[in-house]
Amino acid sequence: MNNSPFTLSTLTQQANQLTSGQNPYFSDFSRLFEGFNQQKANELFNSILEEILLQKIHDKKPAYSDQIHLIAAGDFNLTLNVIGQRENTDNTLCASEFDMMVINMLPETVAVPRYETTIRPSSVYNRPAPLKTLSLQELKPYTPTIFQAYKDIAVLDEATLQAPCLIIYSRPLASVTWVFDRDSLDPLTLTDNSLQRSRILLGVRILGELGEQHHAETLDSLSRSDFDYFVRWEAAESVYKLDEWRGTRLLQEHLVHDNNPEIAKAAKQTLAMLSDEPHQAEESVHGLYN
Question: Which SUPFAM superfamilies does the record cross-reference, listed alphabetically (predicted)?
Fold first, then answer.
């Protein structure tokens, strides 16, 4: 019988053993918490606090945070979070691009609101159906609960109790996700998960709305680059807003032959719209997501 303490180091070693096997599944990480109980939770907390204090001394920074990153290794990304009793103020819900495993570290059950989407990683650019509201999801003490990427939305901030939780995230399954309206449950917009690409996308949109005609050259170059096609199409739309002649040539000479079939299809649809109703061009970007 192994009586050694259940520490962060032990957990890391066991996770590495799992991930080094042949074709491991994300759900396999639940095996790390077989027989997990209050004693093991306390041992793990103690080792985490030791790590935090050592890091604080090394970095000379405050150790307090509602989310502490503990391990980052491929599909095993472990954080310690305090969930619960925080209000969602922006009235939106966002589908997660990660598989997520939550282990409630309290000795009592906690419940969280849960929604279901029709999004699948292989077709994430297709506009999904409205969210489906499910019954509260119970997080039982010391027991792993899995939420699937894109399919499940768990509103951890609105848990019925404040609770420390270990949360394991997979690597992202795609680079974009959908935001939904909390009241109507309808999909609102597709957004990029990469902070860098999101900043570029915002810059592209602002330039398209507020820029001058000579800025179209920069946007034209971006639309021909190897950036994610979500960004490149937004750049093409902004080119058209600033310079309709240049935007049309970009569609005709380049984007209809794009290596990405979604861009090529949207470019052809846009050109067809331009031949009939020029004012519809700015709306054509939606053809990329429907």
Answer: ARM repeat
Sheet order of strands, 144-147 included? 67-73, 76-83, 163-169, 100-104, 144-147
Q: In 3-state terms, what secondary structure has residue 79? A: strand
pLDDT digits (tens, 9 = 90+) for 9-24: 899 999 998 888 778 8
* 262/225 Cα distance (integer angstroms): 16
Q: pLDDT (tens digit, 9 = 90+) per residue, 26-67?
A: 999 999 999 999 999 999 988 888 877 766 544 554 444 456
Helices (H), the chain: 8-19, 38-59, 195-210, 216-223, 229-242, 244-253, 261-276
Instruction: Judge if 186 and 200 occupy the same domain.
Output: no
Query: Phi and psi of 234, rounded to 5°?
Result: -60, -40
Q: Which of 155, 176, 192 is the last residue of a domain?
A: 192
164, 192, 220 — which closes off a domain? Answer: 192
Judge if pTM exceeds 0.85.
no
Tell me the C-alpha distance between 69 and 22, whole Å.
27
Decide if 129 contacts 180 (C-beta within 8 A): no
Q: How buried is residue 41: exposed, middle or buried, by Cβ count under 10 Å (0-12/13-18/19+)? A: buried
